[in-house]
Amino acid sequence: MQAILSAxxxxxxxxxxxxxxxxxxxxxxxxxxxxxxxxxxxxxxxKTLKQAGLVVDRRDAQWVRYRRNPDLPAAYxxxxxxVFAAEALEQEHxx
Amino acid sequence: MQAILSAxxxxxxxxxxxxxxxxxxxxxxxxxxxxxxxxxxxxxxxKTLKQAGLVVDRRDAQWVRYRRNPDLPAAYxxxxxxVFAAEALEQEHxx
DNA sequence: TCATCATATTCGATATTCCGCATATGCGTC
DNA sequence: GACGCATATGCGGAATATCGAATATGATGA
Lengths: 95, 95
Fold this sequence. Notes:
The structure is a homodimer.
Chain A: H1 2-8, H2 11-20, E1 26-27, H3 28-35, H4 39-51, E2 55-60, E3 63-68, H5 74-94
Antiparallel strand pairs in A: 1-3, 2-3
Helix pairs in contact in A: 1-4, 2-4, 3-4
Chain A binds a DNA duplex through residues 10, 27-29, 38-47, 59, 61-64.
């Protein structure tokens, strides 16, 4: 839990995780482009998410494809879902 | 959400919040004693929890009584509940 | 083999967090 | 007002997090 909470308390990591939360694979280059951050920064943040067990990666030719960890225990999934749901409500209030 | 996640990603703050999550009032001296931390440390962590909107405080003679914020939006309550539930499972596995 | 693309990592600098110690503040009692 | 108790805060230092720039690694394809 500690590693997970530390991981998602950084905005870029939380944004990246939200993208990966769709269950599909996304390469680092795509995440960089969407989030507008540098390559080393993106790579390091993905490493943190991986070490927290939130995502898994796979080498595919010159790309590394990240995706949401399908084996994440349900209790942790519930936390992440709750965080994204709360943030979605925040966005509604802004809009 | 950012303030809440930062607040609960510190172990002492999370422990204090779990104590307050019972809905009752607890003074700083009690939290210090239970968690085994110094006074200034406890006080500062409580300030962080308060600024995140997770707890409220009340002056009662020489004590300050903290309690869980009863007006915390439901979406945030769900996050906290999920975190504590996940940690409870972790403890089970240890035991 | 060489060039290139995607990604990871090292390095050094900066920013932030967290702490203990000391001190200030607020409240009750004498 | 002086004292004691509970809490908050200012200060300086230690530890940690984060970053960009440069470089390393690994894969592809001419």
